[in-house]
Design a protein that fits this description.
This protein is an alpha/beta fold. The chain has eight helices and twelve strands. The protein is elongated, with a radius of gyration of 20 Å.
Length: 277
């Protein structure tokens, strides 16, 4: 992991995400890029460098003034950090600008401040992050609070472990470079059950494929996957929950047998979504 991107609106929630990103970057010797987007309408004109240019329709002076103000505010905001960061203030639609920055700067991890909501679309991590999870090809870490006391030592990866093991760079980096121990969790339910020996063999194969030497495998019984995961987190030290998502739009991309939107909405710990194409 070389570069971490933190989109910000300079709110306390975005600040929490930035602090978490800096902590991860220091442990992984990675670079942090902080992005403030100045939203413009879809018909805005840009030059070859991506700079906003005047056309015959709209006066761009307010947008330029907003960029200058945001640049000063972002500089002051980042001056309090104990790690140098790259600051960007860019024009464009919010989601598209974030994704363009991911490509242009070869970003490996996206860290965003998020919150649960009362609507279905908000329940995972908020509308913007829900949209980005469906489009970004990189892992997204959603942070709900400034977790100064979170040591980031134990990562819970919950999955059905029915498929052939896959390799996830971010899990290996958290293990190898950040020094985390990875707990692999399978929840057996009345309607979806695997024999312990069978699933533990698959989990060990997953650990080998991802080169996880500090790991533990756990198979628990619960009425539902959600209840099993929630009980585990309540009873064990867990600093981050990692889940897989499918690379398509809509909430169906959450892999069946993993965790539900309701569970994610209840949790306050950081949530790492790893896209499966």
């Amino acid at each position: 992991m070389r570069r971490i991107l933190v989109p910000t609106d300079l709110s306390p929630l975005s600040t929490a995400a930035l602090h978490v990103a800096v902590r991860i970057a220091k442990r992984m010797h990675a670079e942090v890029v902080v992005l403030k987007v100045v939203p413009v309408h879809g018909g805005a004109a840009f030059d070859d460098r991506g700079e906003l240019v005047q056309d015959n329709a709209d006066d761009i002076t307010p947008f330029l003034a907003q960029r200058d103000a945001d640049s000063k505010a972002l500089a002051a905001h980042c001056a309090e950090l104990d790690l140098p960061v790259t600051r960007l203030v860019l024009f464009g639609p919010l989601a598209d600008t974030i994704l363009r920055t991911v490509d242009q700067y070869a970003i490996d991890l996206l860290v965003m401040g998020t919150k649960g909501g009362s609507t279905l679309r908000d329940r995972l991590v908020g509308r913007l992050v829900e949209h980005l999870i469906g489009r970004a090809d990189i892992p997204i870490l959603s942070v709900k609070d400034d977790l100064h006391d979170n040591p980031l030592r134990r990562v819970l990866f919950t999955n059905a472990f029915r498929r052939h093991p896959q390799y996830f760079d971010v899990l290996h980096d958290l293990h190898d470079r950040a020094g985390c121990t990875v707990d692999l969790l399978r929840v057996n339910t009345p309607n979806d059950r695997l024999q312990d020996d069978e699933v533990k063999a698959r989990m060990e194969a997953f650990a080998r494929d991802n080169r996880l030497t500090r790991h533990a495998v756990h198979v628990v019984e619960a009425p539902s996957v959600e209840e099993g995961v929630y009980r585990w987190i309540a009873d064990h030290d867990t600093d981050l929950l990692a889940i897989r998502t499918l690379g398509r739009s809509g909430f169906a991309r959450l892999i069946k047998g993993c965790v539900s939107l309701d569970l994610v909405d209840k949790l306050t710990l950081p949530i790492l979504t790893i896209r499966v194409k």
